[in-house]
Amino acid sequence: MRAHIIKSISKSTKDNEAETDNLIKLSTKKFKHEILEVIQPSYKNDIKYAVEWRGTWYKISSWLDVIAEVFIGISILVAFISASSIIPAGDGPLYAFISGSLGSVSRILARFSDSAKKRSQKKTSELNELLSAIGINYKIPDITDNDDDESKTEPNKISNTNNTSNNSDIDVELGLEIQEDSNK
After folding, report:
1. If we measure between CA atoms, which residue out of 64, 148, 60 comes closest to residue 107?
2. How many other C-beta atoms are found inside a 10 Å radius of the C-beta of residue 68?
3. Quick check: 117 and 61 in contact, CB under 8 A?
4. pTM for the full predicted model
5. How far apart are the C-alpha atoms of 153 and 155, rounded to whole Å?
6. Per-residue confidence at 56, pLDDT binned at 50, 70, 90?
7. What backbone phi and psi angles, to 5 degrees, belong to 33?
8. What is the distance between the alpha carbons of residues 119 and 59, in angstroms, rounded to a whole number?
């Protein structure tokens, strides 16, 4: 009789452990699902924001560079005009002042252009970190690298890592399509 009681207690304990394990698995699965429901829209919005603003900052940088160069050209022309005999005698200092002002504005615009370029690079870096966080092993190239003749980069390829986690569910849920490298 005593052996029967011990068997039923050990069977009961095993059943309780199995139930506990099932509850933990169920709650973990539910927790992961709830987290994905919260995180997924956040990642989507962050990725869209980063893509949008990296291009916007690059365009701002490009336009400010062009405007700064135009102002430099106008400043040089006005400086020559201020020293020439084309203008009336008393207007030389006014033209010199305009030339200096345009040169200063040009320098300020060039600084803003550099700042916008750095912001574009920062957004590209943030975008790559976001993609890496969701398991997409693809590095988005920095669009400002094309400005430098020395830094000609090849297109980045999807890296084949030994990552054993299954991120395909996240990729599909985010609606991101990535083509595999055909050389595999």
Report:
1. 64
2. 19
3. yes
4. 0.58
5. 6
6. very high
7. -65, -45
8. 11
